[in-house]
Amino acid sequence: MKRLLAASWVAALVAGIFAVQPRLARTVHAIGEREDRYALPSPGVLRAATLGYRAAAADILWSKVTVEYGTHLAERRPFVHLTRYLDSILALEPDHAPVYRYGPSFILFHHPGTTERDAHMARHYLERGTRERPTDPEMWLRYGEFLSAFGPSFLASADEKTSWRNEGARAIARARELGAPGRVAPGR
User: Fold this and answer.
1) pTM here?
2) Could you tell me how far CA 49 lies from the centroid of its own chain?
3) Tally of CB atoms within 10 A around 66
4) Residue 105: which of 57, 145, 77 has the closest Cα?
5) CB atoms within 10 A of CB 100
6) Portion of the chain with pLDDT greater than 70, in percent
7) What single string gives the DSSP state of each residue in the chain?
């Protein structure tokens, strides 16, 4: 009798799980698609948590950013914490080249409807890249190409477009001084 009672109790539990699980899974999946979580601590705490392995931690975070970017792009969702991740990486390793090489493109193309604010944010990272990597001709060339050719297309003000293009020309000249090739190659 005890075995029969235990077996019927287990059967009822299993039936309950099978009845509830699909609906619960759909709900969890829907919530997961709508909300992103940023689970990293502040930059100061993050630096301490790496126990001195800042470059390795920066590389791991960069890997996470590239995977998350691809996932968000495929699902057509905005990557709302992108700049927080980029800032965390730069807090660990201020001259982390991939952030400056690809971060601005991630900012501009992480959701439909890129805004002027996004262009200013991309410029911010490129400018920081020239400060952190002042002798890197590729960094200066990317910055110059963005300012002179690509970035102004997101701006509304004609004066600001002209200013960006002039600054871009100066940045490309600086890239040439540092040994960059003598051509402008948009989309590098």
Assistant:
1) 0.76
2) 21
3) 13
4) 145
5) 24
6) 92
7) -HHHHHHHHHHHHHHHHHHHHHHHHHHHHHHHHH--------HHHHHHHTTT-HHHHHHHHHHHHHHHHHHHHHTT---TTHHHHHHHHHHH-TT-HHHHHHHHHHHHTSSSS--HHHHHHHHHHHHHHHHHSTT-HHHHHHHHHIIIIIGGGG---HHHHHHHHHHHHHHHHHHHHTT--SS--TT-
Whole-number mean pLDDT of the chain?
89
Instruction: In whole angstroms, give the CA distance from residue 119 to residue 138.
Output: 20
CATH number, domain 42-177: 1.25.40
Q: Which of 43-52, 87-96, 178-187: highest mean pLDDT?
A: 87-96
Cα–Cα distance measured from residue 60 to residue 58, given in angstroms and rounded to the nearest whole number: 5
Report CA Rg, the chain.
24
Torsion of CA 174, 178, 183, 184, to 10 degrees: -50
pLDDT digits 0-9 by tens, 92-108: 999 999 999 999 999 99
Q: Would you call 151 exposed, middle or buried from its count of C-beta atoms within 10 A (0-12, 13-18, 19+)?
A: buried
Pairwise pLDDT comparison (8 vs 113), residue with the higher score: 8
